[in-house]
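Suppose a colleague, Dr. K., hands you the sequence of a protein chain of 158 amino acids and asks what its three-dimensional shape might be. Before reaching for any lab equipment, you can write down a predicted structure in token form. Begin with the sequence itself:
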Amino acid sequence: MPLITLHTWPTMTKEQKKEFIYKITELTTQELQIVPDKIQVLIQELEKENWGKAGSAASNPNFAHESRVIDWATKKSYHKQPDEINGMAVVTIDIWNTFDQATKDRWVHGLTQLIANFTHAPLDKVLIVMREMIPGNWGQSGVTGANKDFLSKSRVYE
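The predicted structure, expressed as tokens, is then:
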């Protein structure tokens, strides 16, 4: 039942997006034991000028350094190498509140690795935000997740 939305820079081809959607679904079914037809993935691409972190726009040539500032007054940064940032990812996941912390930790670790690989984002530029809800706040085909027959009733399409 997760809705996984990836916000990223345009870095993937159409084929890579297909593979990304497949791999995210595969990982989610393995880690969360969710049936594939209840996993939805959205990819939203934004240009660099629409991104910012630590007060710096991603289109700024000094973004790698400035986006890693840890002290506003001194502008001290943990950035150590003269590299560029080739991607960023913010992932929001709407999901039922039915998973334990160890399961979520394993899933987030796997998601982070997969997302970094596809978006070319360094690990510190992959942010995952889970918004958990009770099953009754999730509806599909006119039935909520609180219904004991949700899986079968939510598959009605006529």
